[in-house]
Amino acid sequence: MPRARADAAPDFARFFDEQSATLARLSYLLVGDVETGRDVAQDVMTELYRRWHRFGSYGQALGYARTSVVNRSRNVLRHKGVVDRVDPLLRHEAARHAPAADGSLDRQVLLAKVRLLPRRQREVVVLRYWLDLPEAEIAEVLGISRGTVKSTAAKALARLAETLGEEAR
Amino acid sequence: MTFEDELRSALHDEAQRADIRLEYPGDPAPARPARSGRRALAAAAATVALVGGVLWGAGTGGGEATPAGRHTVVPRHPQEHTTKDIPAAVSALPGVLADLKALAPVEDAAIAECMRTAGYPVLPAAPRSYRVDSRHEREALTVERARADGYGLAAVRAQYLRDAADNRRFEHAYPSAEERESVYAALIGSLGVLPENLTTGPVGADANYGGCIGQVRQQMYGRAELARAQIDAWPGADLPVGGRRTTDIPRTPLIELADRSGAFVAANRAWAACMRSDGARDLVVSRMPAPAEPVLAGDPDHLMERISAWQATGRDAGSDAAFERRVAVADAACATRTGYRDVARRLVTESGLDPASLMRKQPELIDVVLDLDAAVSRLKKQHGID
């Protein structure tokens, strides 16, 4: 095994234990498929392992990993877009969900609506409300300004509320 | 519980449901389980080799064809071209689009044969609907046009109904999600594994999916497959500009610009309120008024969503033409009355989609058009298409 990997192995092992499942779930929430989320995170972890000696800190590696997961998930979604286009029955699956009879918020409908958000809005929602990242870190992961994070989150919430409200009417 | 708390809680629960364990990269790699579509892909690849041989014929078209799944296209940098190349590319574009349409049945037959050999004789409406021939002329919705034929859904309704029938047959043939995943894997490659030779062109289009579609197209178009993908990703490729036809309308930048525009947000709200006051609430029930929708009024995707919206309300989209016209007239009138149309047009200019900007972007398309022109000319000759 190359020296750099051997030196870095203990830290990487800790990083893997602590972050691998979270990164896979991050991808899962972005792409909506467990197997794909696992594959994306596995690829990122493998890439990280190869480059581990380049990272100066745990935080730096984590930031890199989160950005990689988001970027790779985008690529998968672009690919997945073909399936959605070729199968309108799948594409509008979310629209077929009916609100709960008692008027309460149906979580599956809510999650379906999150998946239908524009790409950046979906990413901001997942990073903010699932990973609980502060605006500055979301901005770093996505490569956008803090102001854009804030406005994107507001638009996403408004969009979710509006589409859910309209369905309930 | 606030809405944000509901959202947070839903995402946490959903993430927890996914029991995901990864393999440690440093361990000796255990054999990963074969994906369901793997065997089908292997069979598909064998078929494509056969189909490709037929497509390219003996000694005629193999020049630029490369082994399936190993072709990587590196586009030349646009700056390597000079302005003298532009007229040739622009004048070739209408012919290229027509040729692609003429070659579509050849492509369909090869894909279908590939899929049959892989064990999947029933296909969704996929290969047909995802191509140049599904495009419609783009123009802003006017009251006059809306009064005459609504959103123009009649033009796409018949195709939609045929596609829906194909998809029902497809669902019936492969009722489980696992079976359908296998079909898609054979058709376009596995979703979880990006093709090694994935190539991204200047407009962000992936040139090369896996599966029967990707492999057949590689066999047919060779190096020009990237060019074909770019044309596909540029739905406004046949936009008339200054008496000639050129290409563009990347939708995403326009929508992102609209998202950032306070004027557009305000106009959008006013437009939506106007629509509701005209009693069109049931039409917009399933989605927000789409940003820049009047600008993209001819987009088949948007028209399809409108049809779906109707179906969600229980209306019969197949016969309610009067309803379509009434809502389309309200849509066009509201867009004018609320200033939505003016704001949308301004955004088109700001996003570089006005005719002057399009002309400036033409050097980026030279590779795309000229590569494709050469490939489709050769294919037409090979298949005896006039």
Please describe what this structure looks like.
The complex is a heterodimer of chains A (about 170) and B (about 375). Chain A is built from eight helices and no strands. Chain A is mainly α. Chain A starts with a helix and ends with a helix. In chain B, about 60% of the residues lie in helices and about 0% in strands. Chain B has a two-stranded antiparallel sheet. The radius of gyration of chain B is 23 Å and the shape is extended. At the A-B interface, helix 1, helix 2, helix 3, helix 5 and helix 6 of A face helix 1, helix 4, helix 6, helix 7 and helix 10 of B.
Shape of chain A: globular
Structural class category of chain B = mainly alpha
Beta-strand residue fraction of chain B: under 5%
Largest sheet of chain B: 2 strands, antiparallel
The radius of gyration over CA of chain B amounts to 23 Å
Structural class category of chain A = mainly alpha
* Structure annotation, total helices of chain A: 8
> Can you count the beta strands of chain A?
0
Q: What's the N-to-C terminus distance of chain B?
A: 66 Å
Helicity level of chain B = 55-70%
Rg of Cα set of chain A: 18 Å
What's the helical proportion of residues of chain A? over 70%
Largest β-sheet summary of chain A: none
Task: Write down the overall geometry of chain B.
Answer: extended
Could you list some keywords that capture this structure?
heterodimer; A: 169 residues; mainly alpha; 8 helices; globular; disordered N terminus; B: 386 residues; two-stranded antiparallel ribbon; 2 strands; 58% helix
Write the layout of secondary structure elements.
The complex is a heterodimer of chains A (169) and B (386).
Chain A: H1 3-31, H2 34-51, H3 58-86, H4 88-91, H5 107-116, H6 119-129, H7 135-142, H8 146-168
Helix pairs in contact in A: 1-2, 1-3, 2-3, 3-7, 5-8, 6-8, 7-8
Chain B: H1 3-17, H2 38-56, H3 85-117, H4 126-129, H5 143-149, H6 153-173, H7 177-188, H8 211-221, H9 225-233, E1 239-241, E2 244-246, H10 251-260, H11 262-277, H12 300-312, H13 321-337, H14 340-350, H15 355-361, H16 366-382
Antiparallel strand pairs in B: 1-2
